[in-house]
Amino acid sequence: MAHDLQDDLEFVAAGHDYDDFEFDDAGGNGLRTSGGASQYQLNTEMNDTSALEYRQGKDMQEIPWERLNYSRDQYRQMRLKQYKNYQSLARPRDALAKECQRAETRDAFYDFHLNTRHVKPTIVHFQLRNLLWATSKHDVYVTQNYSVMHWSSLLRRGKEVLNVAGPNQDMRGGGPLSRVQISTMMVKDNLLAAGGFHGELICKYVDQPGVAFCTNLAGNKKSITNAVEIYKSPNGSTRVMAANNDCVVRTFDTEKYSLLTQFPFAWSVNNMSVSPDGKLLAVLGDSSDCLIADSGSGKEIASLRGHADYSFASAWHPDGRVLATGNQDRTCRLWDVRNPSEAFAVLEGRIGAVRGLRFSPDGRFLAAAEPADFVRVYDVAAGYARAQEIDLFGEIAGVSFSPDDGAEALFVGVADRTYGSLLEFRRRHRHAYLDCYL
Questions:
Q1: Which PANTHER family match (predicted)?
Q2: d(Cα 139, Cα 422) in Å, to the nearest integer?
Q3: Sorting pLDDT into bands at 50, 70 and 90, what band is 432?
Q4: pTM score
Q5: The CATH number, out of the four listed (2.130.10.10, 3.40.640.10, 3.40.50.300, 2.30.40.10), of the domain defined by the range 98-433
Q6: pLDDT band at residue 270, thresholds of 50, 70 and 90?
């Protein structure tokens, strides 16, 4: 559940009327002030943070620790002690700690590059965090209020590519949709797919005007669209898949946007992902078990058992043999789909559930995002025993590697009224031939 800390930080500098500071809920109300005028003043004082400024000692998120009653380290310890992780199932968790392998977190695979407040992600549902997608090391798409914004890190400029505050009409006969609160989204090969808080599905080509397709999946305004997926079927055609709270996973083609398949399950589907070859479907939801099914027929192939709560995140390794699942029990489990009887590794979060998972396109890294404050980047080649821990403050809206071969960029979205921003990290390269000059 969204975290709320009351009155835990206060400004102490003279001349500033900043009384009650808090990291608040997942709706973006985060670390904030109680007065509107002071809030405006604070926002206008804060600028983007560059890598050079960070190396010179500036806070990555430009949090003015020197003017607060707590140091960064003190506040971190407070957060670790007081943050309450949301649980759907009241089950004993003592045995989980024994399963989890320890990871050394002294490595740095990615260096901080830029923090910009020109785009601020907005979270609609506290359990759903797929709200950020990178399409290159310079291009990233972020959900912000009733729109999707494109941010160019090269031009340092943002542009709205989808606005769903007003009516959107499906030209193929669907009804109009208006004021869509985006709950999840994905961008791939110029196609944007977005799900809505009341069961909507919207598809749009980011390089073309207008909306290509929009509909309400279940006709039930309480049935949230939890996840969307854009993938290639085994025959090479592009498909859009959507998972909904009505316990159904639906697949559409991208030529006529006709409904191809709909697979019912016994519980609400919170997340699904298709294997790189398009043949297998991972299905996760309001169950401690995760399923692997045939993507064409929906027939169950295997049941993955080990989690203690509901799951909300999954990712396939590019080789198609390893599946990662993230759960509210604060763990990520790694499964070899050739032997799915038990996970071959269990990774533990620092503060809360694992709500975002991404493998880098080259398969070298796995990024695991928690609801707030922490993203870990694991070294796959080291058996997930080495990791970089990105330590920040605020609700995490999403995490995404750039899809180029080298996974040159890693983006992290932070949803917070005051410190909401987009953070960019660049992959560290070791050039031995330069050592003689150091």
A1: WD REPEAT PROTEIN (AFU_ORTHOLOGUE AFUA_8G05640) (PTHR43991:SF12), WD REPEAT PROTEIN (AFU_ORTHOLOGUE AFUA_8G05640)-RELATED (PTHR43991)
A2: 12
A3: very low
A4: 0.89
A5: 2.130.10.10
A6: very high
